[in-house]
Design a protein that fits this description.
46% strand; 4 helices; 28 strands; PqiA-PqiB_transport; membrane; transmembrane; mainly beta; 6% helix; 359 residues; 7-stranded mixed β-barrel; 3 domains
């Protein structure tokens, strides 16, 4: 049985070097050749041992002496005598480890590198202000589950491609199309600072999901709203709206903007928002939305009239909504309903005190 391995550089092996399975020779290196970006190493396995190769098989360089130093001491592990002289390659079954480069088997530089690598994934930036660098950790509730290995510009699609790896013990939960990745940034407002640890070093957070296995994900700017209820806002201009802009009800954050794009005829801006399911009942079929970002200054003969939201909305921006007062409360808005986003509020809108009982 013949297999082709790929490595970035040729390890200290030669033709005839042993192929080991748990220190037992089951084959040998037959030849090797240069290729773009690395080297191919062809190995043969005795037919009676070919059953040992499965879809979880991982290969690594087993040449020389392995030395591992830690606070508890130094661990020295020597390869069999033949591999000390001729070099060698070992393999075993390691679930959750990426083992292929295209159609060829991947050869790791040593067992430690193979055991800790896990599975590589690709993240794509969604906005221009997402700053990601090599070594940035990926965390789940503060626990490191992976890290960024490489960033590459994609000029054609005007975005950055991020190659990251997920540690092997978390591959099953974090490499399916239900997983959600976002970049954590510090939030500074009147209520204090959120994500304080991101002030020193930003990181990527992830929520596990379920679904089919995949290796490509969008990198979002905000955390996922579980079971959030979606609505659509239409406006003449984008203004200061962007993904992550909070949706407020009486200055309490109840949702956020998830997407901003041009309408199908480029005559309006379409903003998709998600409302927390606990507050979705507040959006009625006749609710009115308006922008509370920035300061509106109007000059007249009688002087200047300055209108502004809260100081927090001046810093972060925001969209708020309310429901008109009337003799009968209108029904709850259907998910996906479209509303017009007003540039500013009429004076009467801020005075509405419509009672909306919780379901």
């Amino acid at each position: 049985m013949t297999l082709r391995l790929f490595a970035n550089e040729l390890p200290p092996v030669k033709e005839g070097s042993p192929l080991l399975y748990r220190n037992m020779q089951v084959g040998s290196v037959s030849n090797y050749e240069l290729t773009d970006g690395g080297v191919y190493i062809n190995v043969t396995i005795d037919n009676k041992y070919k059953y040992l190769v499965t879809n979880q098989t991982v290969f690594w360089n087993r040449s020389g002496v392995e030395v591992e130093a830690s606070l508890s001491g130094v661990s020295v592990k020597a390869a069999p005598l033949k591999t000390l002289i001729d070099g060698g390659i070992a393999f075993d079954s390691l679930p959750g480890i990426e083992n292929k480069t295209g159609k060829n088997w991947k050869l790791y530089e040593d067992f430690g590198s193979a055991r800790k690598f896990g599975q590589s994934i690709t993240l794509y930036t969604t906005t221009a202000d997402q700053q990601v660098s090599k070594g940035m950790p990926i965390k789940y509730q503060g626990v490191k589950v992976g890290e960024v290995m490489l960033t590459l510009p994609d000029f054609d699609k005007q975005r950055v491609e991020i190659v990251a790896r997920i540690l092997p013990e978390y591959v099953k939960q974090l490499t399916n199309n239900g997983a959600y990745f976002w970049i954590v940034k510090p939030k500074i407002g009147l209520n204090g600072v959120k994500n304080l640890n991101a002030l020193v070093s930003q990181y990527i957070a992830v929520e596990p999901g379920v679904g089919k296995t995949t290796k490509a994900f969008e990198l979002h700017d905000f955390a996922k709203v579980d079971n959030g209820v979606e609505f659509i806002l239409q406006s003449e201009n984008r203004g200061s709206i962007k993904p992550g802009t909070p949706i407020l009800y009486r200055d309490i954050e109840v949702g956020s903007v998830t997407m901003v794009e041009l309408g199908p005829f480029a005559d309006r801006v379409i903003s998709t928002i998600e409302i927390d399911p606990d507050y979705a009942y507040l959006v009625r079929s006749n609710s009115v939305f308006w922008n509370v970002s920035g300061v509106n200054v109007q000059f007249g003969l009688s002087g200047a009239n300055i209108k502004a939201g809260t100081v927090d909305s001046l810093i972060r921006g925001g969209i708020t909504f309310s429901t008109p007062e009337g003799s009968q409360l209108q029904p709850k808005a259907e998910e996906g309903q479209t509303f017009y986003l007003n540039k500013e509020a009429d004076a009467s809108w801020t005075q509405w005190r419509t009672a909306i009982p919780a379901p």
